[in-house]
């Protein structure tokens, strides 16, 4: 994306698009109508150049990753989201898995002595895995490895936990935070617009409930992420509406770390009849998200979902984070037909991936504190793997 923003402004003939480009140059927030206009009228090179301008103004060429692993306690779920290829209904739980606390703690212990900074815990909503169960899990994780950052539980899981325990959101979040919950992932947001949400995920927490849980976490001093499921039956205005509500909450609390667009995949779910978005539409979405969400510090592309080459491409469309090493420990997207069937990359592979597209690889922790800058580091391949993995 070598097009300068001045050249873009001078060569754009559409007055509305020219105004948007000028706003971006002057760091003026674009409106909802302008966000929709970018989807409807702007070319991919146009939005890409604007997004890359913002990305490089905020972060230069720095591209973040972290060393993390996932624990998925269960894929048994009381909900039946139509887009989900992962969960198995509780009534048919023989098709799913359920991990005990000891089994999950064994997963944590398998990383002893390794420089992992984060464990990411999400899964289905299992009625037997309640507040007391997860409080015990987190207490045992923290007792074993106090410095490990626990990022866990979507707002969907939390809403069910709190209702089952007859706790307010504030009471529930406080108890989990005190037990060791450090931050929240962004899952379960899907699309906030009720007319779409009711068609794809009618039986779980609504958009207002999702936002309330994240706002409560922010008020407790916790950081969270935000997502949006795109490329199914939603329209452009629904995407912008979703991002507007995130932008408004970020104005209020400043508690979001990053925005993560999640591509709808149509394998083995009740929406298999819906065609998936093209890579062109994926990159357009990333770019417009970077332009619209002016108060979000980071934009992440989840590489197991996009695939490695497309994740590299996204770094020219506003993205400055490609998630982490993952270590083949998540099935949520591979079961839906993601590009990566066994999602694991070593630190070396991630560093190489980023350097191949002339960006600067920086390992971060969950809160974007720098752990190590690999920009000017060259390693013998054998030594590199031995030292860092």
Can you describe what's shown?
By secondary structure, the chain is of the alpha/beta class. The protein folds into two domains: 5-59, no CATH class; 63-388, Aldolase class I (TIM Barrel). It is built from 16 helices and 13 strands. It has helices at 5-11, 15-25, 32-41, 44-59, 101-109, 131-144, 155-165, 169-179, 194-200, 207-219, 236-253, 279-292, 303-306, 308-314, 347-356, 381-388, and strands spanning 62-66, 68-71, 76-77, 88-89, 118-121, 149-152, 183-184, 223-230, 256-263, 298-299, 321-324, 360-364, 370-373. The strands form four sheets. It has a four-stranded mixed sheet, with helices on one face. It has a four-stranded parallel sheet with strand order 7-8-9-10. It is globular, with a radius of gyration of 20 Å. The chain starts with a helix and ends with a helix. Mean pLDDT is 88; it is low at 328-341 and 380-389.
Outline of this structure?
Helices cover 44% and strands 14% of the residues. The chain has 389 residues and is of the alpha/beta class.
Key features?
389 residues; alpha/beta; TIM Barrel; four-stranded mixed beta sheet; four-stranded parallel beta sheet; 13 strands
Count of separate DSSP helical elements = 16
* Strand arrangement across the biggest beta sheet: 11-1-12-13
CATH superfamily heading of the largest domain: Aldolase class I
Low-confidence stretches: 328-341, 380-389
Range of strand content? 5-15%
Task: Tell me the layout of helices and strands.
Elements lengths: L4 H7 L3 H11 L6 H10 L2 H16 L2 E5 L1 E4 L4 E2 L10 E2 L11 H9 L8 E4 L9 H14 L4 E4 L2 H11 L3 H11 L3 E2 L9 H7 L6 H13 L3 E8 L5 H18 L2 E8 L15 H14 L5 E2 L3 H4 L1 H7 L6 E4 L22 H10 L3 E5 L5 E4 L7 H8 L1
């Amino acid at each position: 994306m070598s097009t300068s923003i001045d050249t873009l402004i001078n060569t754009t003939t559409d007055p509305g698009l020219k105004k948007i480009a000028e706003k971006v140059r002057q760091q003026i927030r674009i409106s909802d109508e302008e966000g929709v206009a970018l989807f409807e009228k702007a070319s991919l090179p146009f939005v890409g150049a604007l997004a890359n301008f913002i990305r490089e103004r905020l972060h230069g060429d720095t591209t973040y990753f972290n060393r993390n692993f996932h624990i998925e306690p269960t894929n048994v779920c009381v909900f039946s989201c139509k887009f989900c290829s992962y969960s198995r209904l509780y009534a048919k739980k023989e098709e799913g898995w359920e991990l005990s606390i000891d089994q999950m703690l064994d997963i944590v212990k398998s990383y002893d002595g390794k420089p992992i900074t984060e464990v990411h815990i999400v899964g289905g909503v299992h009625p037997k895995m309640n507040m007391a169960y997860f409080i015990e899990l987190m207490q045992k994780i923290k007792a074993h490895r106090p410095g490990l950052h626990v990022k866990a539980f979507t707002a969907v899981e939390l809403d069910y936990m709190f209702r089952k325990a007859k706790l307010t959101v504030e009471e529930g979040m406080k108890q989990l935070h005190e037990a060791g919950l450090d931050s929240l992932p962004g899952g379960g947001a899907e699309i906030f617009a009720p007319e779409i949400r009711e068609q794809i995920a009618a039986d779980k927490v609504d958009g207002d409930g999702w936002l309330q849980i994240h706002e409560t976490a922010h008020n407790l001093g916790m950081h969270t992420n935000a997502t949006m499921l795109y490329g199914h039956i939603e329209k452009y205005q629904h995407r912008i509406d979703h991002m507007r509500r995130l932008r408004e909450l970020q104005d209020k609390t400043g508690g979001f770390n990053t925005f993560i667009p999640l591509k709808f995949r149509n394998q083995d779910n009740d929406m298999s009849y819906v065609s998936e978005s093209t890579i062109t539409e994926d990159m357009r979405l990333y770019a417009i998200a970077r332009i619209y969400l002016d108060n979000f510090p980071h934009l992440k592309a989840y590489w197991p979902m996009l695939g490695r080459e497309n994740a590299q491409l996204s770094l020219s469309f506003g993205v400055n984070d490609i998630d982490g090493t993952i270590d083949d420990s998540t099935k949520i997207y591979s079961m839906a037909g993601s590009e990566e069937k066994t999602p694991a990359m070593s630190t070396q592979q991630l560093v190489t991936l980023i350097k191949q597209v002339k960006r600067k690889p920086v390992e971060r922790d969950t809160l974007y504190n720098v752990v190590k800058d690999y920009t000017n580091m060259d390693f013998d391949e054998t030594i590199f793997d031995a030292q860092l993995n």
